[in-house]
Write a structure and sequence with these properties.
The protein has about 220 residues and is mainly beta. It is built from one helix and 15 strands; from the N terminus they run E-E-E-E-E-E-E-E-E-E-E-H-E-E-E-E.
């Protein structure tokens, strides 16, 4: 179904904020639980996270999706209450954004060997993603006037991993990824507005995290 582009939003992660025994909602009975508060579903991967079942910490038998705030249990639980203690990442809208691109790809290695089919065979290896953000905001504009200072120019300068969120119009779905900004470009001509473009690349994690994904928000 077509999606109206003008309803889209582009956001980056702000200052990590603590959550204690944060409530979850059971999505799939006894298996999949998601943080109830939508604003707290992006979990900070650089802070310790404690999963609690009936208020008692557990360390095995589950997988956490840090991008969308879910915990999947294997084996399933039995009518238990799941809460999380750690940090979440609030998101900040990129001011005056008007363009974005998201490219998802995968490295395909040539696996063709002698005396087989005359056609190439390939094996899927590393996943990747990259893209850009176009905005009319100045690079020194503060995206977080109510809290800590977050400026576009600093996103490149500090060289630390960020969370990028692109909400596709009013579809209810968003692309989220852990990224590093690699470039910032400012353009201006006398008969148009000054505009900026920020390029980014996927920044995977040694924690074996899901590095990007598309889901409901």
């Amino acid at each position: 179904m077509p999606i109206s582009g003008h309803d889209s939003t582009v956001k980056v992660s702000g200052t990590p904020t603590g959550m204690v025994a944060e409530a979850t909602t059971e999505v799939t009975a006894n298996v999949l639980f998601q943080i109830t508060a939508a604003a707290k579903r992006i979990i900070d991967p650089d802070a310790a996270l404690t999963v609690l079942v009936n208020a008692a910490p557990v360390t095995t038998g589950f997988v956490v999706d840090y991008l969308f705030g879910t915990v999947t249990f294997d084996p399933p639980l039995t009518s238990d209450v799941v809460t999380l203690t750690g940090n979440y990442l609030p998101t900040l809208a990129v001011l005056d954004a008007r363009e974005f691109s998201v490219v998802m790809s995968r490295l395909l290695a040539d696996s063709t060997v002698f005396k087989t089919s005359p056609h190439r065979t390939r094996q899927a290896l590393l996943k990747d993603a990259s893209g850009s953000i176009g905005t009319l905001a100045a690079l020194h504009d503060d995206l977080d006037p109510g809290g800590g200072s977050v400026k576009l120019i600093d996103l490149l300068a500090d060289g630390t991993r960020k969370l990028l969120e692109v909400v596709f119009g009013n579809s209810g779905y968003a692309f989220r990824a852990w990224i590093l900004f690699e470039s910032e470009e400012v353009n201006g001509v006398r008969d148009d507005l000054v505009n900026s473009s920020l390029g980014w690349q996927l920044a995977g994690s040694s924690l074996n995290l899901v590095s990007y994904g598309i889901g409901l928000v």
